[in-house]
Amino acid sequence: MTDDSTDNDSDEQHRSRSSRRKFLGVALASPALLGLGVGSYEALSRSEDSYDTALVCELSGAQDDLVGNRTAVSADPRLLDATGLSVGQQLRLARSDDEFATYTVVEDRPEAPDDIVRMSDSGKFRLDLTGQVDDEADELNSCPDPRTEHSLPDEFEADVSATVPADDLSVEQARERGELVERLDERDSSLVTIAPHGGGMQPRTDEQAALVGDLVSATSWRALGWGPTPAAGAFRRWYVPSTELSPASFPKLEEIADTDFDVAVDFGGVCESGIEIGGTADEALRARVRDSINDALPSCAVTAELPDEPLGTADSMLLNRLGDDGVFVAQSYATRRAYWEPIAHGVAAAFDDEFEPTAMAGSCE
Fold first, then answer.
1. Which of 250, 233, 142 minimizes the C-alpha distance to 195?
2. Full-prediction pTM beyond 0.70?
3. Residue 166 above 80 pLDDT?
4. Residues 6+ apart with CB under 8 A from 1
């Protein structure tokens, strides 16, 4: 099981490079390709109306496929049109100044009234944050399962916004306010390093992506999100599966969405102890990354492995949309906490022969 299990449970096979590049440029931007197009109903849009506030309701009887999905919502196409959203994009819903979360619009569903947004109980749980964040149950090294218990009514109002990152904030301000920001270091490189779930969601992954980008002059994109407390709530508030992340909802990600990267390296989380090197890259490249990481780690540390069934192979995962070859570096929180920097140096050495990862191996004393 991974921190990002939705990202990695797909049995999709590695398709051609051209199909992945086409998916990046078209699929998320085109609801019709998802079978969820607005269609003729969009003609009923009323752009003059205000949809700053939505009425959040339970799922209907025809939405069994959304039961248990903690990040998915449906919305009326008129609400989506008025807020500049479409199916496949993310939105932010807020009950109060302290209770807000990010969701993915997976269905445009005509409603009456037309300001209705529907979600599952596990989706509502993410908005029930006041006094509900348990540091012990929701601590940084946990692997949260979808939970359905909440104290919210069947219907309630929530502010709706197409703005997900608060990129006007510094990282420290975002941490203090429980917000999410993007960071992009764009360089002239065929390699991109990413951390879609940085900050408090999967701690240290953003630092790894940034460090490798610095060491090998690669482009680096990170999303950093925090919860109501420094130690809890970030995953619950901000997590969106990598398979669903839309560049249209993350302005800095959109800046590089059409760049032709040869390789994308994703630093992510895995619940089981250890380090797994997955992705769509061929075994030779993944083995080089594995060996380089192991050379950089102390002899007594856990070792990176190539699993028989590698994670991160779905074409819809962000790293596989960005790069012709994807390398998914999945690590448990305990591993990242102890060895995040040697792991990053090992990855850098795999892409730059000037590094000597064996010289960085620490002591076990």
1. 250
2. yes
3. yes
4. 143, 270, 271, 272
